[in-house]
Model the fold of this input.
Amino acid sequence: MASYYDIDDILTEEELVPVVFHKAANGVIIDPSSETNSVEQGAKVELPLWLAQELHWRQAVSISAPPCFNQKTRLEIQADAACVDLRSRCPYFYEFGCKILPLVGDKTIEILLLSAFKIRYKETLTKAYTAAYTATSKVLTLLTREETNLYEAAQSSMAAFKKWRMGGPRLQRASVLGRKRKPVN
Amino acid sequence: MAGQSDPHVSLFSAEEVEFIAEDEMVEIVPNMTIERLNFISGDFGPFLPLTVNQVPLWLAVALKKRGKCAIRPPHWMSVENLTKVLEEERDSQGAFQALPFHYVEISRLLFDHAREDIPDIYLVRSLIEDIRDVRLHKVETSLEKFSGTSAVKIPNLSAMEVNIIRPFVGRALQAFYKHDNPEKIPDIDRVSSGQSRVANSEPPRRPLRR
Done:
């Protein structure tokens, strides 16, 4: 589970979400291109999740579903989840979805996440254990962070097993032993 | 021991699993008289020539290296038994045949150190490799059937096979759990206002699925 210092968790909260301000706010520079240092009521801006979340709890903004959960992506995921390039849309698709879910109050996101993960999980599994290492770079570009972790876990344990099976030097030389003596001046 | 190697890769490395497997008992036939050996793990011997003794695999390998004994291959390592197991592995799609928990490691250690003690070593070795490949393939196909959080039961899986799939399965099940039960994400209890109430008011979903 996510901890305070989890870098993936922090990066997930950096993702932008579209929000609508319910209240005018003075003295803030949220949009650098605006002329004044204030945000008007009803303004639509994109804020990182951590800020949007705090403002949402204070009833200052309302959050709408971010672009990676729009209709177009949903249709693509329904068509063939395994081929959708989720990494370019949102590298933390699943975690982000879980975080945005209670804020948007859209139950369909939950179903979307689960169905997408189910299908992509199978794809990741078959690729991870069967594909040759050279063929993997293309697959990896489509995967989200979580799927990449899964994939690498599978690959590295398989590689470790193969290395063990091939054998080789049983004992490793301690790094201290290989060191040469310093020349005495 | 566990986690000392590389914490990200797996809980145990293959070498560590092999180390654990060395505690399995094997039969040896000494070819000279050796007095009783006292170790922390127990006392073994005394050994008399041509009398069968039960010793751990590590001791058997150590004695074998010094040319003091012959290792008797375990009963399951016979050509007839392995052929039977291989056929049954191929026939049954879902189930795994009963083999010793450490069969991969034991067979490799014996192939490395006691080649001349195993009859038909080339046949035995290729049979075991075939069995292992068939089983690994079956593990992968059974992993494909995961769809949601559920108790996973794969009987007769061996130590090395479990060790290979452990990092992947652990993460995958955690992810399935997370997406299957979004209500249980700890952040949610902090959310108490606004639209989120709609999302929380529904009855909790069944935690276990088939």
Remarks:
- Chain A has nine helices and five strands.
- The domain at 1-64 of chain A is CATH 1.20.58.2050 (Methane Monooxygenase Hydroxylase; Chain G, domain 1).
- Chain A has a mean pLDDT of 80.
- The two ends of chain A are 56 Å apart (CA to CA).
